[in-house]
Amino acid sequence: RVDRRYAFDPTDGLYRGETSFLDWREQTYPGWVADNVVHVAMSKSLSTNLDHLFLLRSLEALTGEEHGAAALAAAIDAAFWDGTVYRSAKTTTLDPHAPPRQDLLATSLAILDLGTHPEALEGYPLGEHGPAVIWPQQQHTPIYHNRGIWPFVIAYSVLAARTADNGAWVSAGLDSLVRGAALNLSHMENLELATGANHLEEGETSGPVVNSQRQLWSVAGFLGAVVHGVFGMQGAD
């Protein structure tokens, strides 16, 4: 009810709020938002609205009552699907258009949770070492989400690709996961996009700025990609 009162915008049927996973704002938003987060709060992201959709569907399943999940699903498609790809976010009410930016986790979740555009991954760039977390990259920004490969995000994309019957993406995603773990002898938190390295030294933009071995969500993502993505095993409802 609180979200519905303060975050919901009845003009387009979406919830306001920054991206759900890309939580280092300067990595994915314009640099000036670091000192002016009002515009971030006014924006609407694909990933966060998918989170709201999951919660509303769960609430409807628990109560047997209608809480607007179907309307939100339709609003998400109307706002973020551009005919070829899912765009990551809409900006403020001053400019309500969705700029040409993509987010791999949100795209994957949209395929899994909406099911309306299984072809969405076909328009997402896939590099030699795997897909980037965001696209396009930002100049003069340290490597982390920006110019980053995140194994757990790739794992979700593998599951989405399986759902979409996109065998080429499943193969590329699994290759990225296996190679990244093998070359580092560990499941890293993230890797640099162009080289696949766990660190790239290039002055002020060196990175990934934060990284770690045996990262739990990378381990879980790898296991999930194999168990669910390769073998198709699912838990009981």
Topology:
Elements: H1 2-6, E1 8-9, E2 14-15, H2 25-28, H3 38-42, E3 44-45, H4 46-63, H5 69-80, E4 89-90, E5 102-103, H6 104-113, E6 134-135, E7 148-149, H7 151-163, H8 167-184, E8 191-192, H9 216-230
Antiparallel strand pairs: 1-2, 3-4, 5-6, 7-8
Helix pairs in contact: 4-5, 4-6, 6-7, 7-8, 7-9, 8-9
Total DSSP helices: 9
Identify the strand order in the major beta sheet: 1-2
What is the terminal separation in angstroms? 27 Å
Report the radius of gyration as a whole number of Å. Answer: 18 Å
Largest sheet: 2 strands, antiparallel
Percent helix: 40-55%
Q: Note poorly predicted spans.
A: none
| Average of per-residue pLDDT values | 94
Question: Quaternary status of these chains?
Answer: single chain
Proportion of β residues?
A: 5-15%
Shape from CA axes? globular
Please report the total strand number as a whole number.
Answer: 8
Task: Return the structural class.
Answer: mainly alpha
Pattern of helices and strands: HEEHHEHHEEHEEHHEH
Protein described:
- It is a single chain.
- With 237 residues, the protein is mainly alpha-helical.
- It has helices at residues 2-6, 25-28, 38-42, 46-63, 69-80, 104-113, 151-163, 167-184, 216-230; strands spanning 8-9, 14-15, 44-45, 89-90, 102-103, 134-135, 148-149, 191-192.
- The longest helix has 18 residues, at 46-63.
- It is globular, with a radius of gyration of 18 Å.
